[in-house]
Amino acid sequence: MSSSDRVSNILMVGVGGQGVLLASEVLSEVMMRAGFDVKKSEVHGMAQRGGSVSTHVRFGPKVYSPLIRKGDADILFSFELLETVRYLDFLKKDARMVVNNQKILPPSVTLGVDEYPEDMPGMLRQHYPACEIVDALDIARRAGNSRALNIAFLGALSKYFAVEENLWNEVITSMLPPKLVDVNVQAFLLGRGGQIG
Amino acid sequence: MKVILSGNEAIARGAYEAGVTVATAYPGTPSTEILENISTYEGMYAAWSPNEKVALEVATGAAIGGARALAAMKHVGVNVAADPLFTASYTGVRGGLVIVTADDPEMHSSQNEQDNRNYAKFAKVPMLEPADSDEAKRFTRLAFELSERFDTPVFIRTTTRISHSKSIVELSEPQKGPVKPGIEKQPAKYVMLPANARRRHPIVEKRMKELEAFAEDFPENRMEIQDTSIGIITSGACYQYAKEAFPTYSFLKLGMVYPLPRKKIREFARQVKKLYAFEELDPFFEEQVRSLGIEITGKEVFPICGEFDPATAERGITGTREGTKQVEILPYLPPRPPTMCPGCPHRGIFYTLNKLNVFVAGDIGCYTLAFLPPLNAMDTCICMGASIGHAMGLDKALGQEALGRVVAVIGDSTFLHSGITGLLDVAYNRGACTIIILDNWTTAMTGRQDHPGTGVTLKGEGTSKVDYVTLAKSLGIRHVKKVNPFNLKTLNTVLRREVNRPEPSVVISDAPCVLYRRAAKGAEKPLLSVESSECIGCRACLKLGCPALEWRKSAPQEGGAKGKKKGEAFINPYLCVGCELCAQLCKKGVIRKKDVQ
After folding, report:
1. Closest CB to B4 among A38, A49, A105
2. What is the DSSP annotation of B514-566?
3. Is B315 helix (H, G, I), strand (E, B) or coil?
4. Distance in Å, alpha carbon of B183 to nearest chain A alpha carbon
5. Which CATH fold would you assign to the domain B2-217?
6. CB contacts, 8 Å: B237 with chain A
7. Which residue of chain B comes nearest to A64, CA vs CA?
8. What is the ipTM of this complex?
9. Which contacts qualify for B172-176: CB closer than 8 Å, 24 or more apart?
């Protein structure tokens, strides 16, 4: 048995420009303040936008590797439907899956060479019955700004961790520019399943 | 106080705590954030240099003046800085001099995956390699102490996985270096005439012996003796992977990867039954350990190519890897490579070059993505600045056959980094070459850093600004033309004319990066949309490869009958920025501006 048994492995994936990295920074900071050892590693290609992005977040009493091994992820947190499928081999057998119900077309699809698979939510649910599909864009819009999508979605993920709501709010408040704090805290709470207060 | 920092942020913090007063770099993934973070601390000169050679020379000058100085670069940047490096090793320093090399196993954002540990051996310079952010900070401070104690430049080597991973760091208070900066003449030490250099070389060899002795007792070269059936010699991120996979085996974790502690290695080898070298890229430890007559397993079970992870250790040592299951819920997954942004000023240039069917000698930058379909307009890309030399070489080798068929394309920052000398050669030796400088007013690919052509420093202060037209003319290029890359008709006319000109010529594409904030202010344009009923489905606009343009297939009943269109173009309003290139290509004129809301 390896010492990583008590380490939680969260794989966050999406498309460049969706705010995956910021969401992973908030998660890492929260876990550090909750008293864990934390490592976070991002994998992104050479350009600014549009490419596949993944971030590995690991926390526990002592974390060695900044990368999650294939087959070891406890939760896949996917910002985009198709990207979910690209990383399935990272998942543990009984892994949780939280998926944002958003389609971003890859270049070969916009060019008309490939087709975007139909009914991805249905297909994911069929293979992973515990998969939670979230409409983070809608939540962010209800909170007042579609760009708070990443924090709204993080709200949905936050339910899977035994961390107090206050700590999340505190970290979001400390990490976002002051004028965006309110809308992001609202988006987070809505994503977590609360009501706008 | 504890904070979460990336390896690069931690190196910046380490430099601040070590009392560095001069820090220089040229941006390059994965090293860029080191200087960006250093520039946020007070009391330090932090600057983007035009290239890594200049960065190292400035840092060396500062160290000769007694200051603590740091130069940061990506692995291939050290190739550019190699000339001053090898001789700074002879002269030594006065204030501490630390060179950060950020290597990129797996080539996440690089053209090769060279292992820069070889530079430590080659240039006879000690090298430290941190394994997480806390070590990155501590080792940076240590490197300055070593540099002054042994009178040598010191390398800090990271890999992408250390530079771009975050982990917890304990902050300390800043201190000052022990040397008092000031003018101190020691020409015999710093003027490397052959007579002086001959006297310095034995000093370098003696220093390496002393450093090797130091490495024996260096606490960061750490033996962790547990289960002695297997012992693993490793460093950096690889230590974490192996420790994750085999926490109970014995480890020799090297904080200093050159020179190696030979006695300690022998002692470790004696204590374990089977010895492994677990290292990414070259068999750097493996070969040195084997040269001591010690049996060791390395590259016969671990790959030379690419980045490792804990599974690499498992596969190599036990031959198995538990728990990987492949779930195949889709037979084929469309790839998602990075693309040029909607509204990118490079797109029109490469669309035109594709139409002209020329050989495009390319360079390093976002525009290297022009290699991808549908633009398919890049034919070489080797290193910073090489495009111009390639075009010149093709012209000289092929003569008349190359005329009208070859261009070089180079970004503004890349041109200033190492394209000027190539252009000088074209002018001097009369190459019938066309050089297109893609001036997007920033170093776009690494995240929009300033450079000598932007008129702004790393600290955000206004400064001089290169005038490319005057520069090209003063080098001896008579035909220099600025173009607006969003006007396809003019582009076609200008490029066709210049490519066919039997003389050196320069075309400057002048338009800011679409992500460039200073230019974006107040420049929002009306978005475009396709008048669906009038689109004939000719796909002309799709040849731009703009992410905002989508092909939408017609429903089967519409598309089945002869004469009906198979589909039509659609513009995604969330991605369009209103650059209007597609409207210029629409044969029916049905891509139109929408009203500004």
Report:
1. A38
2. TT-HHHHTT-----EEE-GGG-----TGGGG--TTEEEEEPPHHHHHSTTS-S
3. helix
4. 43
5. Rossmann fold (3.40.50)
6. 66
7. B240
8. 0.94
9. B172/B17, B173/B17, B174/B16, B174/B17, B174/B18, B174/B19, B175/B17, B175/B18, B175/B19, B176/B19
Confidence at B259, pLDDT banded by 50, 70, 90: very high
Closest residue in A to B30 (Cα) is A46
Q: Which two tokens stand for residue B21?
A: 């007063």
* A89-130 pLDDT per residue, tens: 999 988 999 999 999 999 999 999 999 999 999 999 999 998
pLDDT over 70 at B559, yes or no: no
Buried b (16+ CB within 10 A) or exposed e, B327-363: eeeeeebbebebbbbbbbbbbbbbbbbbebebbbbbb
What is the rounded average pLDDT of the residues B556-564? Answer: 58
Q: B168–A32: do the CB atoms touch at under 8 Å?
A: yes
- Beta strands (DSSP E) in B390-433 are 406-411
Mean pLDDT of B386-398: 98
CATH no. of B222-317? 3.40.50.920
Are B151 and B97 a contacting pair, CB within 8 Å?
A: no
Task: Give the Cα separation of B291 and B180 in Å (integer).
Answer: 42
Measured between beta carbons, the chain A residues lying within 8 angstroms of B168 are 32, 37-38
**Domain B528-593, classified CATH 2.130.10.10, yes or no:** no
Q: Give the pLDDT band (50/70/90) at residue B564.
A: confident
Under 8 Å between Cβ of B45 and B23: yes
Domain architecture of chain A: domains with CATH: 3-136 (3.40.920.10)
Of A39, A67, A72, the CB nearest to B167: A39
Disruptive mutation site among A33, A38, A65, A74 for chain B (greatest number of B CBs within 10 Å): A65
Residues 6+ apart with CB under 8 A from A57: A9, A10, A11, A12, A24, A27, A28, A31, A38, A39, A40
Whether B315 shows a pLDDT value over 90: the answer reads yes
B346-520 architecture in CATH?
Answer: 3-Layer(aba) Sandwich (3.40)
Which chain B residues are Cβ-neighbours of A51 within 8 angstroms?
336-339
Average pLDDT over residues B374-393: 98
B2-217 and B528-593 share one fold:
no
Cβ pair A69:B29 closer than 8 A: no
Q: Which residue of A12, A29, A43, A48 to mutate against B (max B Cβ within 10 Å)?
A: A48
Query: Does the beta carbon of B372 lie under 8 angstroms from any beta carbon of chain A?
Result: yes
- The verdict on a CB contact (< 8 Å) between A45 and B338 is yes
Which of A39, A43, A107 has its CB closest to that of B108? Answer: A43
What is the domain partition of chain B in residue ranges?
A: 2-217, 222-317, 346-520, 528-593
Query: What is the Cα B416 distance to its own chain's centre?
Result: 16
* B309 contact residues in A (CB cutoff 8 A): 65, 67, 69
From the list B324, B341, B368, which residue is nearest A70 (CB)? B324
φ, ψ of residue B376 in degrees (nearest 5): 45, 50
